[in-house]
Specification:
259 residues; alpha/beta; TIM Barrel; 5-stranded parallel sheet; 3-stranded parallel sheet; 8 helices; globular
C-alpha cells in the first residue's frame, strides 16, 4: 500500500487517531493507552503543562515532545482574551511551536464551543503566526469562516464532550467534510470504535478522542480498538463501498451447472 498520511500544516503523520491525556485512573494507564493507540499527536491542556515542575510525574515526562507531537489546547477558556493568553503561554512552554488546538467554550457544564468568540480568537491567533486547529460545532457557515481565516484544521464535535453519543448530526458533519479543504478532524462525543469507523467512512481526515478510551472498562484494549477502527474506516473509504440497491444474488446466475 502507498503512504496515506495525514498532513496538517505541512507536517505528515502516519496515524489518523489523535488522543488526549485526561481522565485516566493513573499515569501508567495513560502511558500504556496512548502507546497502544498508535497516536502521534497528543493534545494537552496548557493548564496541565509545567516544564518547571520538579515533581516526579510531570505530564511531559511520559508524553515527551521528542516522541510525540504535543498539541497544546486552550481548554478552560471562556473568552477571547483568555484563549489568546493561554495559547501564547503554550507556545512559550513548548519553545515557540505554533501548532495549537483552539477551544473557546460557552460554559463549564456543556463544554460546547462559543462560535462567535472562537472566530474572534482564531483571527487573532492566525495573524500572530499560530497554526490553529479549531474545536467548533457543526455549523457550516462558521466552519467555512474559520477555514477562510486560515485555520489549518476544522474540528467539529460529533456530540458533546464526554457524552459518548457518537455522531449526532451526520448530515451537518458530512456537509462540512465535503466542503472544507483543510483536514476535518471529528472531535468529541465518540463513544466506541464503531463511531470512529463511521466518522472515517464519512471522509473525516482523522478522529480525536479521550474519554472513550480513558473511561472505558479496559482503556488499553479500547485504545487498540480505536486504532484499528480508524484504520479500518479509512481503508473502507478508499476502497469504495458498493452503492445501495435492491437485493441481488451474490452467486452468478449464468453458467450454473443444472442437476
Amino acid at each position: 500500500m502507498t503512504a496515506d498520511n495525514l498532513v496538517i500544516a505541512g507536517k505528515s503523520f502516519s496515524s489518523r487517531l489523535l488522543v488526549g491525556t485526561g481522565k485516566y485512573n493513573n499515569e501508567l494507564e495513560a502511558i500504556s493507552s496512548i502507546k497502544a493507540s498508535g497516536a502521534e499527536i497528543v493534545t494537552v491542556a496548557v493548564r496541565r503543562i509545567d516544564l518547571n515542575n520538579n515533581k516526579d510525574s510531570s505530564i511531559l515526562d511520559y508524553i515527551s515532545p521528542e516522541k510525540y507531537t504535543i498539541l497544546p489546547n486552550t481548554a478552560g477558556a471562556f473568552s477571547t482574551k483568555e484563549a489568546v493568553r493561554i495559547a501564547k503561554l503554550g507556545r512559550e512552554i513548548l519553545n515557540g511551536k505554533n501548532l495549537l488546538k483552539l477551544e473557546v467554550l460557552n460554559d463549564p457544564k456543556t463544554l460546547l464551543p462559543n462560535m462567535k468568540l472562537t472566530i474572534e480568537a482564531a483571527e487573532i491567533l492566525v495573524k500572530d503566526g499560530f497554526e490553529v486547529m479549531v474545536y467548533c460545532n457543526s455549523d457550516y457557515e462558521s466552519c467555512m469562516k474559520l477555514q477562510d481565516l486560515g485555520c489549518v484544521s476544522i474540528m467539529p464535535l460529533a456530540a458533546p464532550i464526554g457524552s459518548g453519543l457518537g455522531i449526532s448530526e451526520p448530515k451537518k458533519i458530512q456537509k462540512i467534510i465535503d466542503s472544507v479543504s483543510v483536514p476535518v478532524i471529528i472531535d468529541a462525543g465518540i463513544g466506541t470504535s464503531s463511531d470512529a469507523t463511521i466518522a472515517m467512512e464519512m471522509g473525516a481526515d482523522a478522529v480525536l478522542l479521550n474519554t472513550a478510551i480513558a473511561r472505558a472498562k479496559h482503556p488499553v484494549e479500547m485504545a487498540m480498538a480505536m486504532k484499528l477502527a480508524v484504520e479500518s474506516g479509512r481503508l473502507a473509504l478508499k476502497s469504495g463501498r458498493i452503492p445501495k440497491s435492491d437485493p441481488s444474488p451474490s452467486s452468478p446466475e449464468l453458467g450454473v451447472i443444472e442437476s
